[in-house]
Design brief:
Elements: H1 2-8, H2 19-30, H3 37-69, H4 74-77, H5 80-92, H6 96-124, H7 129-144, H8 151-158, H9 162-186, H10 190-198, H11 203-221, H12 223-240, H13 246-255, H14 259-293
Helix pairs in contact: 5-14, 6-9, 6-12, 6-13, 7-9, 8-9, 9-11, 9-12, 11-14, 12-13, 12-14, 13-14
């Protein structure tokens, strides 16, 4: 019986692992798992860009296919190939590039001046609570007012030239920027102001060192809204009366029933709005980083 037990149980001597192997195992177990967030974000950004491009290509391919097989009426929807051909003709023989420059300049000027003036107006409410309380309801009324309805008045006052388009883009953006800046002013921490006063700061120093930096995130957040409003204002001004601009081109194409040219204007405005929006996003990131460093 004992012989059977001894044969059944075989005892092997434990062999110690070499010291270098043990140290390598310990190092591998002790090493932390490092995830490169920057490279991960870059890969995700490239993936998103690729998917956006593929989605845009798919839209145009489906559009072209549906018009060719008759599922979409060519008279109303045109075709991407015809639109591209018409756009090339307008670039080489027409005034498409000058129209784009005209609309872009009116939009950017109205956006810049409207945002700056509105931000200064909103920040000025910090200096007097009475002044702010008196002005606030009028700002709300102006914000609710359909400012595009003022386009004929501005055209009559300033003429059909360039500055009436800039004025309309300005009127679309100034109130939004003022309300955004005023929201930032109202959110300023009063304890921070008291601390600055207790340290001997003057009123203008509190305004420059506390109120303005505190309100900047609100002003920056209004930029994306304002660029779209400025473009809409400039286009509506061109619709009413203008000698140049993409809006004028669309109106002219509509009167002569040139649907291809109408779609050229629509596509150009879409690309222009995307480009301006991207520029504002880059500007927002730069301003945000600048104030974070401060």
């Amino acid at each position: 019986m004992e012989t059977v037990r001894k044969e059944a149980f075989v005892i092997h001597a434990a062999v110690a692992a070499p010291e270098p192997a043990l140290s390598a195992v310990r190092k591998a177990e002790a090493a932390p798992l490092i995830i490169d967030e920057e490279s991960k974000e870059r890969r995700r950004s490239r993936k998103v860009t690729l998917l956006r491009t593929l989605a845009a290509m798919l839209i145009f391919v489906v559009w072209e296919l549906f018009t060719r097989i008759g599922w979409l009426d060519v008279y109303y929807w045109s075709t991407p190939s015809a639109i591209l051909k018409t756009a090339w003709t307008q670039i080489t023989e027409g005034e498409l590039l000058s129209d784009i420059s005209y609309t872009s300049a009116a939009t950017i000027l109205g956006f810049v001046f409207g945002t700056l003036c509105g931000a200064l107006l909103g920040l000025s409410f910090w200096w007097s609570r009475t002044y702010a309380d008196v002005s606030e309801p009028y700002l709300i009324i102006l914000n609710a007012m359909p400012k595009l309805a003022l386009a004929p008045v501005l055209v009559i006052l300033l003429g059909i030239g360039f500055f009436s388009k800039v004025a309309l883009a300005f009127s679309m953006t100034v109130v939004v920027a003022a309300l955004s800046a005023y929201s930032g002013v109202k959110s300023v921490d009063p304890d921070m102001e008291k601390l600055m006063y207790s340290l001997g700061a003057k009123r203008r120093q509190v305004f420059a060192k506390v109120v303005v930096p505190w309100s900047m995130p609100w002003i920056i957040n209004s930029l994306r809204i304002n660029i779209a409003l400025a473009l809409a204002g400039a286009i509506v001004g061109e619709f009413i009366a203008s000698r140049h601009g993409v809006g004028r081109m669309i109106m002219y194409a509509g009167t002569i029933l040139d649907i291809n040219l109408v779609w050229v204007g629509v596509v150009v405005l879409s690309l222009l709005s995307m480009l301006m929006y991207w520029g504002v996003v880059v500007l927002e990131k730069g301003l945000s980083k600048g104030f974070v460093k401060q």
